[in-house]
Every structure is written in structure tokens, then in C-alpha cells.
Amino acid sequence: MDLNFPRKPGFLIAVLSLLSGVIGYSPSFAGDIPLYYKTPTGSIAPVTVGTGINSQGYPVVPTYKGKDGAWHSTTVIAQVCGTNADGTPVACNIADQLPSSVLTTAKINVQSGIAGLNDQAQVTAGVNTASQILTQTGLSEGNQGSIPLNLTSNGWQGDAPSHLAGPRITVGVSMNNMADQMAMFGGHRLYDSVFSKFYALPYGVGDNGGCVHSSVMTYAPGTGANCGAGGWDAVTEYELATNNPPWYIAGADFPDENGTSHSVTFTTSGAIIRPALPASYTDYMHYHMNVMTNIVAGPTLYSGLSLDGVQGHRNQDQQFYGGMLESWKNDSDSTGTFTQFTMTGQWQPISGSAVDSGHVPQVGTQNTASAADRVDALDQTQYAEFTHPFIEFGTYIKHFTRNTSCEVIIKSGTDGEAMKRLGLSRKCDEELDNWYHGPDYGATMHGLTIGAGFDNKVSQDSYGLSVAGLWPEGIRAWLGSDGIDFDGDAYKVGSRIGSAAVVGTKKMIAEYWQEPTANIGYLESVKLWSQTDTLSETNNANTGGAAANGMDVSYWFGPRQSSSSFNVDGTFEAAIAFNPGWAKNGLALCGSNAASFDMTSSGAACLTVDSWGNTSTTGSLAAGNGLTVSSGTTTLKDVVATSYKEALKTPASSSAPCQAGEFTDDENYHYVCVADNSWKRVALSSF
Question: Quick one: which of 37, 181, 288, 555 is 20 to 30 A from 270 by CA?
Fold first, then answer.
């Protein structure tokens, strides 16, 4: 019998005695050790059964039971592979004598060894590799134990399929209500929780070592490159969303990879495509993926804001038919091969009202009996270049870069949602902090920039920032006293610090900018500004110097030609002045010539109403439809009138009360008060 072992004395006996410690190698006589062997001459000879020596110096197996039923002693044998310098023998290393394919138990879970398996076929050592870990199926950490039912989430026990204990980390493992290529961290139950943190020190630009975390909505790896960064920028987190193409598209206008075009015949809840799609299409199909066609159920729907009254400038939605994919298959009939797919329900418009039950999309057919304008047609807005119906698999009509929610739930009950009321938090925030530590003006900080790279105009319902809902305040700005709360092209506000404590100085409060007419090419402003007229405080509590209080400051509103932003400059054209220096707590309307005078104390070129309502002007007053004074004394100087009308009145006597200069008339006389309480008259006659 040739065992193909090395030809060394006693090797057979030594190997037989050590086979119990060998893994992965089975000689041809696996099982009981043979007690006889056949010699080259064909005769039968007994096998000498050898054994090794244990740590106490005794034979490992001192006796054995032979085929004859009697007990026999073993022979203690050790293989010698050399001698020491003093001539003592050196034992052989049996592992060195075995074939390279044989592994011993000593090599389990050690360097240059193998990972062992337990009785559940689970690896008993961790995987630590500098190479890739590749799997054709899924990767899972393994299920956790069941959650104790006395915890606050015990209301979930009635919904076991959705909240069974699950793996903390799964990649490509099929789970309910999740895409088949989903990576999930955290499992379903409380102690499935996983915490994550990313550390990276950028060294280059964008995807080439300059981006810590990049999330890209893309149809192909590598798109959205550079992580949104420039040549010397580093980015912690980059997000990109774009209108990617559908996963798959079928129709007469879209030949497949073999050059074959396909016709589409719709059913109530799906379609039949002829001839059958190539086998590759199944690689793109997923349960519950979005399905849409270029057939619309009615005219364009317009919504949102209109700034110029033009319908086509508003938000537009097309009434495309769509649904969710349920099943798909290839088959054949007497006509030929076909691909058939079904959806979870019947075809319905993605936008707009539902069509009649059982309706099959078909160009030219009315889909709603009660609405004559609801007629199926090929879309001519987004897909005008395509002349046949087609099916898109895996598409969407709106995409978000980020959609964040902050929620507080306080309600009665015992389920997991209601038990959230036991959580202490009642506040929601989303915060963006910028920090700087250094000298004044040593850094440039930008909190939030909302840019727009538009080649052409978007719908007028588009906006850069929207604050909606029942907020008590929409936007709140907490800046330093010299900060600018708002700086826009059309409207700007100044800081909270008023004009300087110097008589005559001005400070912009707010300003409006606009082209005088369309396409004139330049802007003009209307400004609201403050002006220091006087200084009432000589020893201000804050600065110790002179200061102006509220009564010392006037407020002006009017246009200024050829001015600059945030400055009260340019040419003064006209203004309304509140609390002017010459009429405190009053109001003045000033023309452009007022700028030629001291506008802190002079009311020249202004019509002024003081705090009592008394009106004065340094110019003339013209009343085109008469002037009526209801009561009181009116003093007129150098009055030129084309006509004059008074109410006829007769003094009671020549000593009736009056002030010198008053006059009145009746049917017979003209009366003049020549001195206080002294009247004279002259008779009137016809002519």
C-alpha cells in the first residue's frame, strides 16, 4: 500500500498517532486505523500501532482493542529529524512534513491561518483585511435580541413585522418598505442604534482629496465631480440633486440596444410592449418603481404667482399618466413576443384630478365623462419631439437637495409615536454657526448663499427663500448695532446706529432702488434717512460726550438722484420731513430748493405743519378752488384774488366786540372795526 508519504523510518506510525490533530486532510483509510497491511509480495502483515507521549511522560494511548477482541499495548515512537550538538535527538515538526493543503487546529484564528466556524457556521474571528470585502448577495451584522416588552415602545408589539429586532447594519439585505440596494444603519429597535462620525483632513480639491462627505443624486458614478469646490476650496459636506434620465424607456421612438423599436399598447393598469424587450431590461426593473408615460390627461395646469399677468410665466404641471410597478414578464402568443407589466392600480394623472374608473390611456379619447376638455393626447410641452407613446421606468417629477424636518409630538396613547410625549424636548432648531477668532476685518465669513445659475428665466412662482406656515415671525435678524439686517438690489436697510452726534450729519435707514423706466440702464433711489439737528446732551452717560436724543433727530423720506448705496448723497430732489429742526413734533413738505438753506433749522422752501396743526410756508399758497377758514383768526398778506366771498353779517352795535382791522358786510352797509370794539360803517348804493 503506497501512502505517498516521505520515506522516513517510523513516519507511518508517527503520522497515524498525530492525525487526530490535523484539519483538512483525510487519508484513504479514514476511520478506524487498519491493524494489518498488505506487503509487496501480497502477504498480510500486522501494523505496529504507535503513540506519542503526553506532557506527563505517559503514552497518549497506552492500549487498544484489536480485531481479535483482545487488548494490546501500543508502541511509543517519536520521529527524529536531527540531533543537538550534544547528540540528543530533535523531534520532527509534523506540520513541516504535511502537504501545503493541510491545515492544523493550531492555525485557526491566528496569523497566516484561517478563520474558524462554530456549530452555526458562523465565523468565530473578526475580519481584518487591507483588501476589499466583496459579496454577491448582502452584508449584515446579524440580528439583535428581542426588545423587552416593558419598555416605553411596547405599543409596537402589535406591529411586529415592521419592528422586529433587526441587524444594526445591513447592505443590500431585503427588508420591508426599503429599496433592494438600501444600506441601513440603526435597525428597527431601541438597542439597534448605531452612531456615526466621519473624520477626514482634506489635502486636495473636491473629489480629489478635498471633500469629506459627498451625497450625489446621479445616474452614473463620477457625475457631480469636484464636490462643488473650486481649485483651493475644501468641503465638509456636498449634496447634488439633478433631473436624471429614467432607468429604462421603451417605445417606438427609442430603439433598444439591438436597434429594435417597440410599440406600446396600454391596459387599465399596465401595458403590453411588442416585441418583447431584451433580457437586459430586467436588470433595470424594481418593485414599486415609478412608471410614467408621455400621454397627458388634459391641458397644462398653471399655478403659483404671476408677476406680469402672463399665464405662460407661471408654474406649469403636465397631467402625465403614471403609477407604481407591481410585476413584469416576457411571454409570447400567436402574434409574437411581448413584455407585459402591471401596476398597483390603474393609470392616473400624476398632477390634476383623477380620470374615470377603468379608463385606458389612448390618444384622442375622453377620459372623464363629466369634463369635455379631459381628452388624452401626446404631450407637446416637454416631449413635443416624440410622436409615439412611450413608457418611462424609474423617474420623478420633482427633486430635493435636502428635505429636513424637526418634529415635536405630544398626544395621548401607548404606541411608539404617542409615547414620544415622555421625551423632555419641546423645542426644534436648525442652526448654522460661523466662528471667527482674530483681529477686526481679518476674515470673510458667509453664512448662507442661495445662488442661481439660470441660462434663462424660470417660472415666476420660483423663489430663493420661502418662510411659510403659522410662524409668529418669518425672519429674525439679530446683528450687532452696526450690522445691516438686509441688503438687496431693490431694498436695503441701514444699521441700528443713527447719525453721528454732529449737527447736520445724516444716516441712511432704508432705501429703495429702481430703474426710472425699463431698459434705461441705471438705477435711482428713494431713501429714508435720519439727520442730527441739535445736541441736547452735553455729557452723555455712555460716552461722556455730546449726544443727540430723539427730539434732536429728524427723519426724511424722498428721492435722491445719482446717489450710492448706504449713503445719503447725490442730489436732493424733494422730501417729507418728520420732526424737522424748525418745527419739532411737526411735519414738512420740502422742495428741492430747501437744500440751499440750513435744513436743520430753516423751513425755507418747505410747507410746514407744526405740532398744533398750524401751517406755514416761505413760498406762496395757491388755492385753485377757494380757501375756507372755519374758525379762528387768519392773517393774509399781499393777497391777490380774482374774487372774494363772505357771509353777510351785521354787528350788534358800533361797540360790539371786534379787533382792529376786521370788516364785514350786510345788505346796506360795509362795516370796519377801526379800533378794538369800535365799528364804523359806510352806506352801499346801487350803480
Answer: 181
DSSP 654: T
Other C-beta atoms within 10 Å of 304: how many? 14
- Sequence-separated (6 or more) residues with CB below 8 Å from residue 529: 499, 506, 507, 508, 509, 555, 556, 557, 568
Average pLDDT in the 495-508 region?
A: 92
- Tens-place pLDDT, residues 136-145: 677 777 665 5
DSSP 287-337: TT-EEEEEEESSSPEEES--SSS-GGGSEEE--EEEEEEEEEEEEEETTEE
List the grid coordinates of 593.
430748493
pLDDT digits (tens, 9 = 90+) for 543-567: 778 889 989 999 999 999 999 999 9
C-alpha cell read off for 25: 486532510
**Alpha-carbon distance values, 587 to 153, 299, 398, 419, 636 (Å):** 68, 57, 54, 62, 22
Amino acid at 450: I
**Distance separating alpha carbons of residues 179 and 173, to the nearest angstrom:** 9
Q: Cell match 426710472: residue?
A: 516
pTM over 0.85: no
* Phi, psi at 52, each rounded to 5°: -95, -175
Q: Return the C-alpha cell found at 192.
A: 439597534
Q: For 157, phi and psi rounded to 5 degrees? A: -65, -20
* Helices vs strands, H then E, count in the chain: 3, 38
Pairing, β 75-76 against β 50-51: parallel
Give 565-570 contacts, CB < 8 A, sequence gap 24+: 565/492, 565/511, 565/513, 565/525, 566/484, 566/492, 566/494, 566/508, 566/511, 567/508, 568/506, 568/507, 568/508, 568/527, 568/529, 570/525
